[in-house]
Amino acid sequence: MSENIVILMIGVSTFLGALGLIALLWGVKTGQFDDQSKFIDAARFDGVEELRDAAMMESKKKEQKEKREKRKEKEKSYSPPD
Amino acid sequence: MKTVGRGEDTPTYQYPKESCLAEVSCTHCNLVFDESVMIKEYHDSQTLYFCCKGCQGVYHLLGDEGLGTSFYDKLGDTTLQPASQNISSDLEKFDLEGFQNKYIKSNEDGLNEINLIIEGIHCSACVWLNEKVLHKTDGVIEASINYTNNKAKVVWDPDEVKLSHIIETVRSIGYNAYPYDPSLQEERANKSKKEYYSRILVAVFGTMNIMWIAIAHYAGYFTGMQQNFKDILNVAEFILATPVLFYSGWIFFRGAYFGFKNHIVNMDTLVASGALSAYIYSIYAMTTQRGEVYFDSVVMIITFVLVGKYLEVLSKKHAVDTLDSIMGSTPTEVTTLKEGIKSLVSIENIQIGDLIELKPGEKVVIDGVVSTGQGSFDESSLTGENEPVYKQEGAAILSGSICLDSVIHYNASKDVSGSLLTSIVSLLEESITKKPHIEQLANKISGYFSNIILLISLLTFTGWYVFNGNFETALIVGISVIVIACPCALGLATPMATLVGISIAAKRGILFKEATFLETMAKSKVLAVDKTGTITEGKPSVVHAELYDDFDPALLLALVSTSNHPISKGLENYLKQEYDSLATIELENIKSIEAKGIEAAFKGKKLLGGNASLLQERGITVDATSENSLFFFTLEEKVVARFELTDTIREGAKEAIANIQSLGIKVLMLTGDHEQSAQKVAKEVGITEVHAKLLPQEKSALIKNFQDKGQIVVMVGDGINDAIALAQSNIAIAMGQGADVAISVSDVVLLDEKPGSIFEAYKLSRRTFSAVKENLSFSLLYNVIAVPLAVAGFVNPLVAALSMSLSSLVVVGNSMRIKMIKFKES
């Protein structure tokens, strides 16, 4: 067994593990584990409908943002008649 | 009839067959009632039953929205609270400016944000439904509900929807929402919880990976390994250990730094210096290819101590959660009367002397004096006594009590910040964060210990350098002193013993929330106990009954079950116990007489139940001499039964107190009840020092008094009124059935509520503490032998490994001996 193989094995496995760790840390940071019970229930209930629901909220957020921006632009471009 | 959106596609939900069961469950809330009282509705060959209009409304609403099927599927057999009907009362207050300033935040996008507590959530289906409905509401941008603590965060666009509409939506599906102020405290608690969690993840990852590399290392040590393979393993361990030490271990470095600034050597100093020196030594060993690396012990120390700290953070957050729910349920506005005009005024704007109107069921938020009207008040959250207090003109009413049965006008005698309720909550908040901490023995010893070890290793280094002249050898020997002295036995001495202690306690129904509490409790010499609910059962029960002719238990049961008064409840329990299956009787003209009794009619006969003064008022003479509470039952103005009720003392209370006193502990009683009944109970259980008529903050002040004299105080209590005192005490013990706040500020919970458990907790904590002392002295002895060897330069890896595991084994074995403890059988 050459040294390179040992280095490769340790390196690859640690790297893969680290990827998992990073994903987990990201999940913690974005609040996905804040509620333990809900987190577990997600496994029972998640389905197409929930996905659709999430997509709906996303688009709602986007729409709302656009609306805001338009309003802002209007306010900016609005010049009082003199 | 309205169309119901729920048809054939609900095969999972079966209704009980009418023919075989007289009782059916409500289609919405699943509560079971007699069939005759249910609202029936026929639909698609199915019969739907509803317990109330509220449930019926919610059911149809969900059906119309197309949410019914999946909600009831998810709900399964869980029962809900019946939906309330008055959904539109006091909605306008949510759009008042004072309310908005207090609770609503607007973020940078111009959106509004509020934190709500949703009431009535029982299961995950409820969370799902609320989120779903809120998501469907126009203008709501984000809604997430935490199932564990029922808290919700809602973000909405104020131009599209009003908050009152959002609240109305939640109410329309049978829940209620009220806002709370996510004070900095909660946000901070949340943040530190997440931070700890991330650090633990990194630490565990590093430790687990280093462990399997270390196995290869050990195998190589005993069977021989080429230096180049050893190098690869060393480097891999080094890479894994570095983030653990500096990211996960950052907390210890920070703690050690603050300790250093304040000239305190603490456990953090020991962990940080031990881990860091082992780390540096290992890097040195790795680069020079001499000796063994200790990266595995570096990460293990960090990981284990970190997990312990995390558990502490968790219990703190829980306490904050329950506090918010007390404050959230208090009204933000009160009705004032100015020159005859009623108006809703924010409680902050109430001035001393304002006239306030109280309606039945309302919670008092501002202290005052009654000007007109009379009625009974539930003061249980202040005094712990369940019996309502009757108040009339000129009587003082305290915030935190609840007006039970009548409309009352009163003058504010204090503003909101001076009122009792506000001061209780702020005191509680303060005491949770500033709880006095007793310095743990292990901490104290490790403080001296690490100082001495650091000094010895420094002297060793200089000694070797001066006499040997070789810098490298001097450094290795110097560091080896720290490495061998530092961790195992001393670090394990306390945790091992307390772990065994805690698990024995848990088996006996005594839950210690933190291991360190065992030690604090062992040092305590003062025990303060609450009366009602702690020494006594907390509810009146019948101790004596005199029955005359014509007594019909079924009639009395029907009468007392119309009232929520604790005396009625006590009688109800008694009747259900004494007589099997009493018939249900419908009464007419039921009328409750404030704080005195109940009146009703049955088939034209007059029924009356109540205390002696009620009967005397009606011209019926009775024997009213008794030291217990009396209840008379009359039929057509003739007494047919006489009951004596009293709050009974818990079983085994007397023995338990005697046992505790025999341990040399001073027992005192603190109660909100009046002197006479307090003395009576105290005499019966053998307590000599009694403090009666105490308000919650006075209890806490008394405990503080003892603490100022240098005493360590253990407090046992069960109610909201005990919460501040519990938070102030060094060790707080709560009864398992007590109020949520009391349990969450407590350090120990007695699940079986037996007073005997207090004695067991004392005994166990003392035994555990003595084991801790034995362990500590052993590990110090070990160091006295091992350190000189290290100083002399005799420590090679084999000696280190052997002596370390041997010393750990001794500590573990000694801790196991706690299991042989015997509690006196009583």
State the gist of this model.
Chain A has two domains: 1-33; 35-75.
Q: Please, could you describe this protein's structure?
A:
The complex is a heterodimer of chains A (82) and B (826). By secondary structure, chain A is an all-alpha fold. Chain A folds into 2 domains: 1-33; 35-75. Chain A is 82% helix and 0% strand. Chain A has helices at 3-29, 36-45, 48-77. Chain B has 826 residues and is of the alpha+beta class. Among the domains of chain B are: 1-84, no CATH class; 91-182, 2-Layer Sandwich (Alpha-Beta Plaits), CATH 3.30.70; 186-329; 333-412, Calcium-transporting ATPase, cytoplasmic transduction domain A; 511-535 and 650-763, Rossmann fold, CATH 3.40.50.1000. Chain B has 27 helices and 31 strands. In chain B, the strands form 7 sheets. Chain B has a 7-stranded mixed sheet, with helices on both faces. In chain B, strand 5 (105-106) and strand 6 (112-119) form a beta hairpin. Chain B is globular. The model of chain B is unreliable at 1-21 (pLDDT under 50). Chains A and B meet through helix 1, helix 2 and helix 3 of A and helix 4, strand 7, helix 6 and helix 7 of B.
